[in-house]
Specification:
Radius of gyration: 24 Å
Number of helices: 11
Distance between the termini: 13 Å
Strand order of the largest sheet: 3-4-2-5-1-6-7-8-9
CATH superfamily of one domain: P-loop containing nucleotide triphosphate hydrolases
Order of helices and strands: HEHEHEEHHHEHHEHEHEHE
Length: 347
């Protein structure tokens, strides 16, 4: 199921409550798709990055090769909000200085320096980088996997492209009215407008921004292209949060393509874990009862932390075992994974 999704969709967001194993599942999906011949871009949007830790390497805001197979590979990125804030404001400053008379440059720069720390700057920088990587990923990779921050942060980010595209469209409409008024004045009094060239540049910048966010919104709401994989564990709070995520994603028009219940306790490893598994079963039934149409798989509780390529290979093999149950897959400290629900809807 998950590997079918990774083969059919071009973009997968992997999200859920903090600490449920989102990064491990996202990495295993990326690795499995690469072993199947895919070119994969794996992006962490979480401010508290864990991607480099799991791949046992140092990552940055630039794509770096973390896995190579015979035909496929995985490039990974950890979005650096501060680097993107600096880059964004450098570009804004360059544009403003062209538009403003020199006597205002110092005060404008002071305003921009202050704006770097304003609420929303961090989110804006991350969103700009996500939009860039999404565009690059669609053009140059077979699959883009976003390892996202805990759900509240991610849901807010996913709601922004539509809002910002609309806001920029309103700004452009306002500029159009101003431009028509200025043109009428120039027609009455004659002469050249020294700000016309700057206005044209500003318009081009706004149009590019509007189009970038509009494209992002179109991509993430196209179920033939994009799916959201929710990772959770079979406990009351994570399950409740997962159900809330589904409701909000549906409100945003984003397809919930699969549920992954991670770290299921084994039934045959002692009384403690067997009783724990019974409690987990009640949570699992609540999840399935509310989301009967969303495919769900279970992954077992493993005996050690997932760090390094070899550990991710084992997790990828576990995921593969869901689609090919006869292979069994390597199981450590738990049962083989289980699949529930209907097959995913066709792309």
């Amino acid at each position: 199921m998950l590997l079918t999704l990774a083969g059919e969709r071009r973009v997968l967001f992997v999200g859920g409550k903090g600490g449920v194993g989102k990064t491990s599942v996202a990495s295993a999906l990326a690795l499995a798709r690469a072993r199947d011949g895919g070119r994969v871009l794996l992006v962490s949007t979480d401010p508290a990055h864990n991607l480099g830790h799991i791949w046992d390497t140092t990552l940055s805001d630039a794509a770096a090769r973390v896995f190579t197979a015979s035909d496929g590979y995985v490039d990974a990125v950890e979005i650096d909000p501060q680097a993107n804030i600096e880059r964004h404001f450098t570009a804004v400053s360059a544009t403003m200085m062209k538009l403003l008379p020199e006597r205002l440059h110092r005060s404008a720069q002071a305003h921009l320096d202050l704006a770097k720390t304003a609420p929303g700057s961090h989110e804006s920088a991350v969103l700009e980088r996500i939009a860039e990587l999404l565009a690059v990923g669609i053009d140059s990779y077979d699959l883009v996997v976003f390892d996202t921050a805990p759900s509240g942060h991610t849901l807010h980010l996913l709601s922004l492209p539509r809002k910002l595209a609309g806001w920029t469209e309103s700004l452009l409409a306002s500029r159009s009215r101003s431009d028509r008024f200025a043109a009428a004045v120039r027609g009455l009094v004659g002469g050249e407008d020294p700000e016309a060239a700057g206005d044209a540049q500003l318009r081009r910048t706004l149009i590019a921004r509007r189009d970038r966010f509009a494209r992002m919104n179109t991509t993430i709401t196209d179920r033939a292209v994009t799916g959201f994989v929710i990772v959770t564990i079979a406990e009351r709070m994570p399950v409740a949060e997962s159900l809330g995520i589904v409701r909000q994603l549906h409100g945003l028009g984003v397809d919930v393509a699969a549920l992954v219940v991670n770290r299921r306790s084994p039934a045959d490893a002692g009384a403690f874990l067997a009783e724990r598994r019974q409690h987990e079963q009640a949570c699992l039934q609540e999840l399935q009862g509310n989301l009967p149409a969303v495919p769900l798989i279970e992954l077992p509780l493993l005996v050690r932390d997932l760090i390094g390529e070899e550990a991710l290979r084992e997790l990828a093999a576990l995921v593969s075992a869901v689609e090919n149950p006869s292979s069994g897959g390597p199981v450590r400290g738990g049962r083989a994974p289980v699949r529930h629900g209907r097959p995913p809807r066709s792309a």
